Automatic annotation (TrEMBL):
It comes from the Bacteria. Keywords: Cell membrane, Cell projection, Chemotaxis, Cilium, Flagellar rotation, Flagellum, Membrane, Transmembrane, Transmembrane helix. The gene is fliL. One of its GO terms (cellular component) is bacterial-type flagellum basal body. Its main location: membrane. Pfam families: FliL. GO terms for biological process: bacterial-type flagellum-dependent swarming motility; chemotaxis. InterPro entries: FliL. The chain crosses the membrane at residues 23-47. This is Flagellar protein FliL. Belongs to the FliL family.
Amino acid sequence: MAEEKENKEVEEKEEKSGSGNKLLLIVIIVLLLLLLIIGGLVAYFLLSGNDEQADQPQQQQKIEKKKKVSDMTEIGPIYPLDKFVVNLVSTNADRYLKCKIDLELDSPELQQEIDKKLPAIRDLIIRILSSKTVEEIQTSKGKEKLKEEIKRKINEILTTGEVRNVYFTEFVIQ
């Protein structure tokens, strides 16, 4: 009998420890699920807050793109100039630039003033182009700077309007 009592006590302890292990396992699984849910919610709120801030610059970029597109649809009168062939500043070899330039004007009335001042404008452009090195005008940034300089210098001598933009319709460096 004593042995039976001991066997029953051992079996009861094993049952209690087995149910305790099952309970512990269930608690651990529930805690892990809660951690996953809380982590997911935190990540969602952190990432969604950045989306609102990121949307604003994207909306501004869309507005700027629309302005650029509308600007291109409203191109003013174009005044084509003859080709320019100038020597570039170079230390080791003879280099030259051949380009064709078109001017975008803000009004048709400006064409008459440009006709009158055409020799001065061509001289101005030749002086600007021949003062550049190959390295200065080879990159797209260099070409943009050159366009801005030409536009600014021409607008200094005009009185009835202004040049809106300068277009290179041909640009060859030899």
